[in-house]
Design goal:
Blueprint lengths: L1 E7 L4 H12 L6 E7 L4 H7 L5 E4 L2 E3 L6 H16 L2
Parallel strand pairs: 1-2
Antiparallel strand pairs: 1-3, 3-4
Length: about 90
Amino acid sequence: MLHINFYTKENCSLCVDAEGLLSIFRHDYPYEIEMRDIYSNDQWLEKYQLLIPIIEVNGKQLNCEEINYDSVEELLKQEFEKEAGK
């Protein structure tokens, strides 16, 4: 099962959209998701403030400008296949 770090903050409509997009793929690429509020960690806030939401799987990240249906599916597919091949 994949582990996703999802960098977010409260009242973020892009974050809600990205989380909804992730849910579309949950059946095909099972995952657990760790919600990381950037305001709970100074390093996350400094690094991701203008880039959230961030979807991170196995160190690979998609930021707000890169998140779309195709990019999310491709990331999950690649990482799921890597995990299955272990």
